[in-house]
Amino acid sequence: MSLLVTDIGELVTNDPALGDGPLGLRRDAAVVVDGGRVAWVGDARSAPAADAVLDAAGRAALPGFVDSHAHLVFAGDRAAEFGARMAGEPYTGGGIRTTVAATRAATDDELRANVARLRGEALRQGTTTIEIKSGYGLSVADEARSLRIAREFSDETTFLGAHVVPPEYADRPDDYVGMVCGSMLAAASPHARWIDVFCERGAFDVDHARAILACGQAVGLGVRVHANQLGPGPGVQLGVELGAASVDHCTHLSGADVDALASTRFDCMCPDGGHTTTVATLLPGAEFSTRSPYPDARRLLDAGVTVALATDCNPGSSYTSSMPFCIALAVREMRMTPAEAVSAATAGGARALRRDDVGVLTVGARADLLLLDAPSYLHLAYRPGVPLVSTVLLNGESQ
Ligand code: NIG
Ligand code: FE
Q1: What are the DSSP calls for 46-107, one per residue?
Q2: Fewer beta carbons within 10 Å, N or C terminal of the chain?
């Protein structure tokens, strides 16, 4: 069944060849979807016929959001920890172990229900592609089952066995790293596309992080890194060294870190000029929920670094599943323009996952399309906290 979405007042295609500016904006547009793919994009008045019609009635349309960083497999919450932070306690990442204990104690069905709940929340807010990490199991069996459950909801699954050293290995971190690279990776990798490490003081140092990421690469996993979140450190440059698809957080960057990220753009040999780039994924929900200074998005953008925005949805540092909320924060608090923020939340997330079939509305792309209850994408930042996503097509199917 083909579907014509017509009378789109403002269409974000993310293809400059299809419209104005980097967002490839078109007015009075239409899109035809067929077989789960975009089959035609153009002026509403010259649109071909289709089996069914969806009248956008002048509303704005854009590609579904690509949330390239989320930790959805966990049990329990840490509302009390959040309350204490808002009363002045710092965020250290120490609460991760609280969630590990709750996650280990949960049944498969409890974990599955939590992922389903959060995936549903995200979808209603326009997220059509979501990456899901493990990292609250931290034993061979619990990491493997976290990823098995994550795979039921997304192909973009990430093995984060190196989130923190679990309590039973507290005085022998080398042994833990050995297990992550050995039996844990073997059990996890069949269910994962990516490997990630929390490279930070109090989590994994650069030597351990390099060893773990290299083991993952050796079995075919792509690299992502939690880097430079709580303080300056070597994580970003390690990510660049290993050709990571993305380094995430990037809250505390040196000039050399920014230069290293910018240089990855020019190393790219691929025809579309972009896929080997290491993306800087910014997670403003984490700075909001830990009451921390925001990353300097302007410095990265002005240096030519590819930027993505993602939620970091997790029960500790950022318990939001809302990409529109992250867009609003990025615009208001990180001085991104609304166009830069929408691009980072769609095309940027796709680049961070090395995908070219999502984050754009071009012929052949996956038919993941949002209609806003608003005439322009600008309203995503202009009307913060308002549920503007009124229609979600995922693979061409209305949700
Ligand atoms: O991305 N930084 C490491 N991991 C998560 C936080 C996890 C937690 O606090 O439970 C993050 O912020
Ligand atoms: Fe994270």
Answers
A1: GPPP-SEEEE-TT-EEEEPEEE--B-----S--HHHHHHHHTTPPP-STTHHHHHHHHHHS-
A2: N
